[in-house]
Amino acid sequence: xxxxxxxxEGSVTSTVAGATAPADLSTRDRVTQLLLERxxxxxxxxxxxxxxxxAAIRRHLDAMLADGDVVAREQTVRxxxxxxxPAKVFVLTEAARVRCGTHHYDNMATAALRWIARTGGAxxxxxxxxxxxxxxxxxxRAAMEDAGDAPLARAEALAGAxxxxxxxxxxxxxxxxxxxxxxxxxxxxxAAEFPQLCEAETAVISRLVGTHVQRLATxxxxxxxxxxxxxxxxxSTVTTVRTDx
Length: 245
Fold this sequence. Notes:
- This protein is of the alpha+beta class.
- It has 9 helices and 9 strands.
- Helix 3 packs across helix 4.
- 29% of the residues are buried.
């Protein structure tokens, strides 16, 4: 007789005549949400977070691979690497991101920006982008009132504010300072053609954390996560800051 855990796992992955059961769809939605929030993630990490066995999470990932919802890549390893091949990580495809319901009116927005570019040039597009992020900057600044002056502490507070805006952001420290990662971009499709949107957003991040920052990767350019580097301040003590727990 199956134990309770096995019964629970079986109910999650059961199918009838090849059709996906409602419980299976629920788990798949949870996998999608985790990948949206965390970016590139291993099967083991997903299984641990969802309480699924390696076999169960592999079944979900295999189905999502077959449907074109995720792609598998080799995990990036910085520094010295041990023996064996790097673990595979799974990332949501652009099609899966679109189905999360976050790219409304992309075609109209792109058409509008093309018209602005034709009639006003690149400077007009940049001015439009700056105007669009002004309201976001105002809301985030209000949410960061008690963050203090330290850039890394402000980055943590900004990550929380951006998450509330739908960016699924987190802040963490690295040897050279800190990183602000946004696992979702509501305007990725439009920004792929008009990088001024990313540039305006980067300028907002710089002003809000109170120091120069450098954009290392963007979803709009095909990366899994928008990553912004925040240099360590001279004489400062780096402490671990995470907002994804």
